[in-house]
Amino acid sequence: MASSTYPLTLAVEGTRTETRVSSSVPSGMVALGMEALNSFREGMELLGLGEPREAISRLENAVACAPDYSNAYIGLGMAYAMDSRVYPALDSFERAAKLDPRNFYAHFKLAQFHFKLRIPKKGYEEADRALRCATTPEERRLLAQILKEERQREAGGVRRPTWSKPFSRTWVRVGFALLLAACVILVLHVR
Predict the structure, then answer these.
(1) Cα–Cα distance between 68 and 96 in angstroms, integer?
(2) H-state helical runs in the chain
(3) Model pTM?
(4) The CATH number fitting domain 5-190, selected from 1.10.390.10, 3.30.70.1150, 1.25.40.10, 2.60.40.420
(5) Nearest to 59 by CA among 69, 49, 148, 50
(6) Which residue ranges make up each domain of the chain?
(7) What are the pLDDT digits (tens) for 17-49?
(8) How far is Cα 157 from Cα 174, in angstroms, rounded to an integer?
């Protein structure tokens, strides 16, 4: 395995933390992967400079050259998020987590993104996966920080419905009866 380390800038509620991420590429892709690695490196540098649109083109090139390179998808997701492109960002983070289920940063960024989108249930699920992948105290600290911020946000905010509980049969029947009554009144009123 050829392995290099690249910085990934993580924005966590107003603070910037630079964390190093291993960008290992399977040895079969080393010759083919140099363009991918260079595009990834350039894309991450552009992200660090606050140029998400330029970074997107470089990171898309990295993904095209090495479609199984999960860190490129993480960087691409970050670039899309910085460019306010929510669905492509979510797809990129999910693809990274699917490609490398043991990649802490794939799950961490996905959890962080779900929390930003105010989808705490999915955020906590991804945070749990990230915790299982965490291998360093720094990774655990980053995870603890976003969990602490999310709990503070939940404590100070309005409780949001989860929509995970189905309607009771009684309320469905009451709603149907009211709809039927409204239709009858409408039909009688038109005559």
Answers:
(1) 8
(2) 30-48, 52-65, 70-82, 86-99, 104-116, 120-133, 137-156, 169-190
(3) 0.69
(4) 1.25.40.10
(5) 69
(6) 5-190
(7) 344 444 444 444 453 478 999 999 999 999 999
(8) 32
Q: How many Cβ atoms are within 10 Å of 81's Cβ, its own excluded?
A: 22
Of 19, 24, 26, 17, nearest in space to 40 by CA: 24
pLDDT in tens, 118-160: 999 999 999 999 999 999 999 999 999 999 999 998 888 766 6
Are β-strands 5-12 and 15-22 bridged in parallel, bridged antiparallel, or unpaired? Answer: antiparallel
CA 187/CA 177 separation, integer angstroms: 15
Q: Fill in the amino acid letter for 187.
A: V
Residues counted in the chain: 191
Q: Which amino acid is at 19?
A: T
